[in-house]
Design brief:
Layout (H helix, E strand, L loop, with lengths): L1 E2 L6 H6 L7 E4 L2 E2 L1 H7 L5 E4 L13 H14 L2 E5 L15 H4 L5 E6 L11 E4 L2 H15 L4 H12 L2 H28 L3 E3 L7 E6 L7 H10 L7 E5 L9
The chain binds pyridoxal-5'-phosphate.
The site of pyridoxal-5'-phosphate (PLP) has 10 residues, from loops.
């Protein structure tokens, strides 16, 4: 898994007895060679190729191809968590790992939390064909399946074309929010923080400039006092020594 990455999955990994190996992610995303040095026999890579959380890095094409090669050669699996990928504001759409894979070795997953609302609690998987049967079985053991009503409503929403126009409208709105908030944050905090470039998503990440003796919590409170952080939110990353507590 990428480091930094989405820690929300740690409980699920621990529950199946998996051994999580943290792999550094840089501007090109997940670093396969570093991963293999740490864990040559890994059977699964779990990553967010479209947009690393929280840094916003995108996995480069060269690294995508290398990763697919590794999975094919090692009979390993890749979980492509495409959370928060729907709103890409800058640049052309990305080709997913799943799209590049020819339908093998990649488990693609996403949710409707960002594109509609978190309370909908609907997500989806695009599976290699050999996994559909075992996953359906496991799903039945886990919770017997989801209520069909929200799924039917969502399917209708998509079939009518309204879902696609909703996404188009929101993309414009969210881009405006991001641009305004980034400008305001840079005006107010630019001497203290550096913004991490990102091509989209619903948050902006700022890292502290070196040797500043300020607290991320004070900064968050100052941003909140201005009414910032609704709709598009801000993440402040303090220097390494302060990261654990904050
Ligand atoms: C990278 C990533 N994957 C998955 C999830 C889980 O999504 P959901 O809240 O829709 O279950 C999140 C939530 O923040 C996330 O950041």
């Amino acid at each position: 898994m990428e480091e930094p990455g989405y820690y929300g999955v740690d409980g699920a990994l621990a529950a199946v007895g998996a051994n999580k190996v943290a792999v550094p992610a840089d501007e090109e995303g997940f670093h396969l060679e570093a991963a293999l040095q740490r864990s040559g026999n890994a059977r699964l890579a779990l990553l967010t190729p479209s947009r690393n959380y929280p840094m916003g890095y995108t996995l480069s094409l060269a690294r995508r191809l290398a990763l697919l090669n590794w999975a094919r050669e090692q009979d390993a699996w890749i979980i492509e968590d495409d959370y928060d990928s729907e709103f890409r504001f800058d640049g052309p759409p990305l080709t997913s790992l799943q799209g590049l894979s020819g339908g093998e070795r990649v488990i693609y997953m996403g949710t409707f939390s960002r594109i509609l609302h978190p309370s909908i609690r609907l997500g989806y998987l695009v599976l290699p064909e050999v996994l559909t049967e075992p996953f359906s079985q496991v799903r039945a053991y886990v919770d017997g399946g989801l209520s069909s009503l929200p799924q039917i409503a969502l399917a209708d929403f998509m079939a009518s074309g309204d879902f696609a126009s909703h996404v188009r409208r929101m993309r414009k709105l969210y881009q405006q929010r991001r641009d305004i908030l980034n400008t305001l944050a840079e005006q107010r905090f630019g001497d203290q923080l550096l913004r991490v470039e990102s091509d989209g998503g619903m948050h902006s990440t700022f890292i502290f400039r070196d040797d500043l003796n300020i607290s991320d919590r004070d900064l968050a409170a100052a941003a909140q006092a201005r009414g910032w952080g609704y709709g598009h939110y801000l993440i402040f990353i303090p220097p390494a020594k302060g990261r654990r507590e904050s």
